[in-house]
Structure formats: C-alpha cells, structure tokens
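INTERNAL AUDIT FORM
Audit reference: QA-55
Scope: verify that the stored structure record matches its stored sequence.
Auditor: D.O.
Record contents follow.
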Amino acid sequence: MKEMFAYKNQKKLRWGYTTGTCAAAASLAAALMLLGKKRIVQVRLTVPKGIELELEIEDIQAGNGWVSCAVRKDGGDDPDATHGLLVYSTVGYAKMEKERMEPECGYTYEGDGLYLKLTAADGVGMVTKPGLSCPAGKPAINPVPRSMIFGEVEKACQKYGFHGTLGICISVPQGKETAKQTFNPRMGILGGISILGTSGMVEPMSEKALLETIRLEMHQKHLAGNRRLILTPGNYGEAFLRSQLNIDLEQAVKCSNFIGDTLDMAAQEGMKELLLVGHGGKLVKLAAGVMNTHSSAADGRMEVLAAWGAALGASREQVIKILEAVTVDQGLLILEQQTGLREAVMEQVMKRAWEHLKKRAGEKLKIECIMFTNERGILGETPGARVCLERFQNSAENR
C-alpha cells in the first residue's frame, strides 16, 4: 500500500489500518480463494475513508469446503497494542470447526439470493454489558467492520455468481492476551480484542479514539444506573483510589488528560456528581484553566506554584528555584522550606482549580476534586470532596 503520513508536533508519523480493515481483507481473500479455487497473496479494497489499500495475505489454509487466511494489523506510528497481530477469517460453505458459538450469537446479512453468517472464534472478545456498538452476547465486531466484511464477501460472491449460504468466522489467536493491554476488560468485552474502525484507517496519535472510549465507558455506567462517578487521569490515580482511599474502581472512569472533554461528556450524559482524583503533576494545571493536561498541550505547573508562592511570601530565590524545578514534588519541596507555605499555596491552587472545573461542568453537574502526590499523599481538597468521597466509600461497602 502507498504509505500515508500525518504531522503531529513537528513529527512525521505513518498512518496504519484498523483491525476491521484486516478482517474485511482476510474475508475477501478467503472468499475469493474458496469460490475461485485459486491461491491469491494480495487483495485490494477501498476503506470507508475512501483510500484504496493493497494488503498481503498470510498463513493460507484450506480444507473441505473452507479457506482460512490472515492479514497482519499495521497500526502505523500509533501506540497501538494490536499492531502486528494476525487477524484471520475463515470462509466456508458449512459451519466451521473453529467456530465457537452458534450463528444466532453472531450477525447475518441477506441480499440477492445470498445469506452470510458472521461469527467469531479465539481472540475476539464477547460483549457482556450494554451501551456499546455491539449488543451484549455478541462478538465485539463493530458495525462498520461488519459492513466491510459483508460487503467484501458479497463482492467475491458476485464475481463468481455464487448464491447460497456462507459462514464467516473471524479470529485473532493472540487477541486474548493483547486485550489485557486495552480498555476491553473495563468495558465488559471479555476474551479478546474488538474488531474496530470507522474509517478503516488508523490516524497516528489520534485523540478521537481515546475520547470515544471514555464516552462509551461513561455511557455504560449511566445505563447501569450510575449518576455519580469518580474520574481519574491514569494509573497513579487508580492506584491511589484503591490503596489509599478504599474505592472500588467499578465506580471510576479513567479520563486520561482530557479533563475538560470528560466533563462535557458527563454533562451530556446527564451525570449529577463527579469526584476528580488525580496526581498533582497533572491537576495543578487546572488552577491555570488548563483542561487538557498533556504536556504537549500545555503546562504551567511551576508557574502556578511560583505565582502563588510569591503572593504568599516565598522569597525571590525560592520563586526562581520553583520555576526551574522539573516536577511538582520538587516545587513543593521548595515551598516546604517555609513553615505553612505549601499548605497556603495548595489552598489557593485548589480554590482556583475548583473555579475552573465548576465553570466547565456547568450548573447541573456537581464537581469536587482531590489532588495528591505519591510522596506527600493528599495535597488539597475542594470543600465538598470529603463528603463526596465518603458516599463513594459507603457505596462500595454496601455492594
């Protein structure tokens, strides 16, 4: 395929293609070989984004009435856990031995004398919770990839004038292990990865996919009856919630750096109350109104600590040292050289952070915040955070 590139932060990054594209290409190849009785090593298809790809076919196998082959996932320069996985499709005239579930647990397509049954086998996750693009009890093959798979197999059938029934089974042998590195277990997709993609292509370093994952997880919590949630940016926050605050992570949604976007989603979803718990290395930025806390978007941590330190009595030398510090903990250590200064600064930081959070959340969504570091524990809380936390703790105990 002709390579495509994007430019992010002055870096040239290569595009890739989705697991959905792999499944569709493998299905096309398997159908062509089954019906045409000729071995092929490449297929050409056009993805929903309008880009034509020519993909290599690997591990071709055939038996009595079936053909199986694979396409290797290429995530481009995106940090993608599924990069390099082989996505298999087995197409056959009858039910295939690899198939792990009854056809009614999969998906079907009918058209012009053609009946296609799509199921999944090893390494493709099963949906167990409502709120996703796939119904509970079905394999995690999203709508656009399903349409692509059916469309490519139908093209093969039209080419050879085939009318009748074909089974299509998608599998990813390494998918079960890979899924542990994804959000799937949190979202109730068990046993493997999802077959994904809306455009058919993977844009490197795309925020869209991560935001959609956050939205889906929040929507699932809403469908389960939750109107109050804990937000945490990442692994530090989850570990602190579990070990220091005794919080069940079932009540939490990981929002990554997208604090503002997540508040917007929560408001749109009809949530009533949020408790944001996060490391000071990220959340100190909120005091400057920074709602995307990724370092490539904005910083301001040391400027916040230095400004409030200066306003509350830090010396010129201390302020300069804070501005030269690399981490929040280093900045706080400098403030601690003066008795009570760190506490006074953090009181103002929490006040300003809360003002920005409330403004973004709007009138109908209550938001509280707890900020910590691993070295110092809790640095500050908004006025209602402790009561809000206790409600979550009591809720966990009553489960």
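Auditor finding: record pair retrieved intact. The CA atoms of residues 228 and 273 lie 5 Å apart.
Action required: none
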